[in-house]
Write a structure and sequence with these properties.
Layout: H1 24-27, H2 29-88, E1 93-96, E2 101-104, H3 108-116, E3 122-123, H4 124-132, H5 134-137, E4 162-164, H6 165-182, H7 184-187, H8 190-212, H9 218-225, H10 230-250, H11 259-262, H12 272-303, H13 308-325, H14 330-342, E5 349-354, E6 358-359, E7 365-366, E8 371-374, H15 376-380, H16 443-460, E9 461-465, E10 473-476, E11 479-482, E12 487-492
Parallel strand pairs: 2-8
Antiparallel strand pairs: 1-2, 3-5, 4-12, 5-8, 6-7, 9-12, 10-11
Bound molecules: protoporphyrin IX containing FE.
Protein name: Cytochrome P450
Family: Belongs to the cytochrome P450 family.
Organism: Xylaria flabelliformis
Length: about 500
């Protein structure tokens, strides 16, 4: 490498001056470069070691606990949601699960903001998709030979005296829903009923596995989980027939109306396959929520036997009229509502997944993929809305003039809320059905089914829990699920 020349001057002794000591880069340019390189390497090595160490430390102190907390959400969702609610004092708070970040809002203003947010930004559908993973759970269905022996007895379910209450109620709900949704023929087809029953459980399991796996593995597992096409095969001919009716209707032929077709878009009519998917999604939601809610109500009837008599008296007076009109049974309505308040299936409501970034008026931000939601259980057990919030008062929602006039000593049937209300109502204190624009449209039907099944039990059976002290549920994410082995003894009352 050429080094620049420096001119030499003469000194006053006439001697040629000694050349000044040359800098290293002039003497040994290669050596200097090498040294510098070493220094740089040493510094950057130490820097990267430091960085690595600090990254490892922050991973251990920060990321590991966060990841751990995220996984604990799977097992203690309701507990974490409640803690967040208690600490936040009405402000929004976040909970991070392994697969999604939830932002909980509970103030009236923010709940309204959530309801008003456009569907293109905060979407219930996107949240449902993430929850149920329909791509994996609704295209093929998992068949496992279900013993083949337990297939009998949807109708006879309750004649068994010691019954595992949750599986029994699921069967009753499956049968009632199948008749209402698909008609008597399919609703009494045992093979179909068994598949429809299995489907709910398989969907729950499959969706969970898929959500927790790396996305690339999901199709592999889903493929392994899916094989049974009984529901799909049974529903496709019905949906095809409905589509043919739709075409006939266009030509002016009179055809019966079907609610699922009525909700389909007129411009781009659904295909039979799409209709079946729609039916299956509704099927899943309705069977799951209904059967869990009714199971907890029966358990509450066992735990609070003093309510059996007034509820039976009411049913004997009003059930026939209720069957005709769908109206009435206010004490049962209140009892079901109180049970759902204290043992709600869900601790989270108004789920909306952000499909675009969203910012609440107070600055709380949602990134794409985050969810906004409300802490329904915590709200329903808050003293702000419910006096003695953790006490079971089965008739607290009834109107005072509907309360039973007599009661045994110690029975507090007269404890009521400041304002009476109904189970189907939707309000800031009652998010069980969601709120606002998207509040559950199936709630009238759901309450009617609950009242039919509960009234039949109340009128015909006394019931008690075999082990009242045993734990009766477990939680997974924000859901409380009844244990399958909780046994109830049903004893016929008379007749
Ligand atoms: C105990 C039973 C049920 C509970 C607790 C329940 C609860 C809910 C909730 C919380 C929502 C979301 C509302 C929101 O996010 O704002 C919802 C939506 C919905 N529910 Fe239900 N539901 C029940 C039964 C049913 C039944 C039996 C049907 C159908 C027959 C049904 C059909 C629907 C539909 C179609 C939606 C979506 C509404 C929309 O997209 O606008 N539900 N339900």
């Amino acid at each position: 490498m050429a080094v620049p020349q420096i001119p030499m001057a003469m000194n006053d002794t006439g001697m040629s001056p000694q050349p000044p000591s040359q800098p290293l880069y002039q003497k040994e340019p290669g050596m200097a470069l090498f040294t510098m390189l070493c220094i740089i390497l040493l510094i950057s090595w130490r820097w990267s070691v430091n960085k690595l160490v600090s990254r490892a430390v922050s991973y251990m102190l920060d990321t590991v606990p966060k990841k751990f907390r995220a996984w604990t959400y799977l097992l203690d969702g309701p507990g974490l949601i409640q803690q967040g609610f208690d600490r936040s004092n009405g402000a929004p708070y976040e909970i991070v699960a392994p697969d999604v970040r939830y932002v909980f809002v509970s103030s009236k203003e923010q709940v309204m903001e959530l309801d008003r947010a456009p569907d293109t930004t905060l979407s219930l559908q996107a949240a449902s998709k993430q929850m149920l993973q329909p791509i994996y759970t609704m295209h093929g269905f998992n068949w496992f030979d279900r013993r083949g022996t337990e297939g009998v007895g949807f109708v006879r379910a309750l004649r068994v005296r010691h019954s595992p209450v949750y599986p029994t109620i699921v069967k009753l709900v499956v049968m009632s829903n199948a008749i209402s949704f698909f008609g008597k023929e399919l609703g009494t087809n045992e093979k179909f009923l068994i598949s429809a029953l299995d489907y709910v459980e398989e969907t729950l399991m499959c969706a969970e596995i898929v959500k927790l796996l790396p996305k690339k593995l999901a199709p592999l597992i889903a493929r392994r989980l899916t094989c049974q096409k009984a529901i799909y095969d049974a529903l496709i001919p019905i949906a095809t027939e409905r589509c043919e009716e739709r075409e006939r209707a266009k030509l002016g032929h009179p055809v019966p109306k079907h609610w699922i077709m009525e909700t389909a878009p007129r411009q781009k009519p659904w295909t039979p396959k799409r209709i079946v998917h729609e039916l299956i999604a509704i099927w899943f939601g309705s069977v799951h929520a209904l059967s869990t809610t009714i199971t907890f109500a029966i358990q509450d009837l066992c735990l609070h036997p003093e309510y059996a008599k007034p509820l039976r008296d009411e049913a004997e007076r009003m059930y026939a009229e209720f069957e005709k009109t769908g109206q009435g049974l206010p004490l049962l309505d209140s009892f079901l509502k109180e049970s759902a308040r204290l043992t709600p299936v869900e601790s989270m409501s108004m789920r909306r997944a952000a499909t675009q970034p969203f910012t609440f008026a107070d600055g709380t931000k949602l990134a794409v993929g985050d969810w906004a939601c409300t802490p329904v259980r915590a709200i329903m057990q808050s003293a702000e809305y419910y006096p003695s919030p953790l006490e079971f008062n089965g008739f607290r929602f009834a109107r005072p003039d509907n309360l039973p006039s007599t009661g045994a000593p110690g029975q507090n049937f007269n404890f009521v809320q400041p304002e009476p209300s109904k189970l189907v109502d939707v309000s800031q204190a009652w998010h069980v059905w969601g709120m606002g624009r998207m509040a559950c449209p199936g709630r009238y039907y759901a309450v009617a089914v609950m009242k039919v099944i509960m009234s039949q039990i109340i009128m015909n059976y006394n019931c008690h829990l075999v082990d009242p002290d045993a734990s009766r549920w477990f939680t997974w994410r924000s859901t409380m699920l009844p244990k399958k082995d909780t046994m109830v003894v049903f004893t016929e009352t008379k007749h």
